[in-house]
Design brief:
Strands 1, 2, 3, 4, 5, 6, 7, 8, 9 and 10 form a 10-stranded antiparallel beta sheet that branches. The protein contains 8 helices and 10 strands. It has one domain: Catalase HpII,  Chain A, domain 1. The chain is globular, with a radius of gyration of 20 Å. The relative contact order is 0.21. Helices cover 25% and strands 21% of the residues. The chain is an alpha+beta fold and 369 residues long.
Length: 369
């Protein structure tokens, strides 16, 4: 996915000059193929009776194949462990215990989008970071983030339409560009979202990637006040553009670099809460909020240990975004219940299968020690 132009939150998308209509759709279609590997997001509240969580997971299996024991999306990954230090700044925003000053333990997983567990790492691959915070009162907070500033689809129905349009032809192994053109023509919000996504430069690795909540949520404070929020994890490691970094030939170079970095020293991110204002959409993940919205740094995430998917406890976790502590609630975004339902369906299927070894083996993790 190229990132050779920028787009602010309030500007119009750049014009594509004299490119033909098919060529324009082809460029966006290529980005959308990458975007489709972000999250197995959809289940729950569907408009059509036949659009069920099982059918969504069937769709991912039709596109990516069935890889027994692996997630149906974000199949390639690696476990991480660490802790979160709250600075207390979030107490005024939410009554959630996570924001009281102090430290809580964290387990998580870095991953690449897509359903192929042995896919080669690429600079423009969609990167995921899923986390579980274990609160001292026994509550859990789970969040699954990606390195996209917005999400490409507004509704579960739109994602499903695109998923079917991207199904490869069995004879050529490629999707039909005409079907992708038809999808994009009927979903201008996806075209706009992809323009925003393509305007964000890709970083050189997991360690200096920014991760976004994608959906909006609501914080409830001790007085019962409710405010719309999104959140981002911003790296404390210096940014380096993927365009300037040398790309090793190793197919697992992103993960191997992460292993080596954490063995050298812990990696850190700041958790930033973005506070929405009246008029900011909470039910449409394709639209960015204005850049001038208030941002509150509420703490620091530290990751200091890595482990292969073959041995990590994170492998058996379902990072359901609706596992929320008191003080954090879902917004009216229809994708949230959809994500929850399809995550559950994917988890149930892989839990009953015999998993093959992961691309990142325990021996690979030990090499950097």
């Amino acid at each position: 996915m190229t990132t050779d132009f920028k787009l602010s939150a309030e500007s119009e998308p750049p014009r594509l000059g004299k490119l033909s209509k098919l060529a324009r759709f082809g460029l966006l279609g290529a980005a959308l193929t990458v975007a489709a590997g972000t999250f197995a997001y959809f289940g729950g509240w569907f408009i059509r009776d036949d659009l069920t969580p099982a059918r969504f997971v069937d769709g991912f299996e039709q596109v990516n194949g069935v890889h027994a024991g692996f997630r149906r999306n974000h199949a390639k990954g690696m476990g991480v462990f660490g802790f979160f230090d709250s600075n207390g700044n979030g107490v005024r925003l939410s009554q959630a215990v996570i924001f009281q000053p102090g430290r809580v333990q964290v387990i998580g997983r870095f991953s690449l989008g897509g359903g192929h567990p042995d896919v080669s790492d690429k600079p423009d691959a969609v990167r995921g970071l899923a986390l579980q915070f274990s609160l001292p009162n026994g509550e859990l907070w789970r969040t699954a983030m990606i390195n996209f500033p917005v999400f490409p689809f507004r509704t579960p129905e739109a994602f499903y339409e695109q998923l079917i349009a991207s199904k490869p032809d069995p004879n050529t192994g490629k999707h039909d560009p005409g079907k992708m053109e038809e999808f994009l023509a009927s979903h201008p919000e996806t075209v706009q979202a992809l323009t925003v996504i393509k305007g964000q430069p890709s970083s050189s690795g997991f360690d200096n990637s920014t991760f976004h909540s994608s959906n909006a949520f609501r914080f409830i404070n001790s007085a019962g006040d409710s405010i719309p929020v999104r959140w981002i994890m911003t790296p404390m490691q210096p940014f380096e553009s993927a365009n300037n970094a040398s790309i090793p030939q190793d197919k697992n170079y992103l993960f191997n670099a992460l292993i080596a970095q954490i063995h050298r020293q812990p990696l850190r991110w700041r958790l930033i809460i973005v506070i929405g204002q009246p008029g900011d959409p909470t039910n449409d993940a394709t639209i960015p909020w204005p850049a001038e919205r208030e941002q509150v740094v509420v703490g620091t995430l530290t990751l200091d240990r890595v482990e292969s998917d073959d041995t990590s406890a994170a492998t058996d976790l379902n990072f359901d975004p609706l596992v929320l502590p008191v003080g954090i609630a879902p917004s009216d975004d229809p994708l949230l219940s959809a994500r929850s339902a399809v995550y559950s369906q994917s988890f149930t299927r892989r839990a009953g299968e015999t998993k093959q070894p992961s691309a990142i083996r325990p021996s690979d993790v030990r090499k950097g020690e």
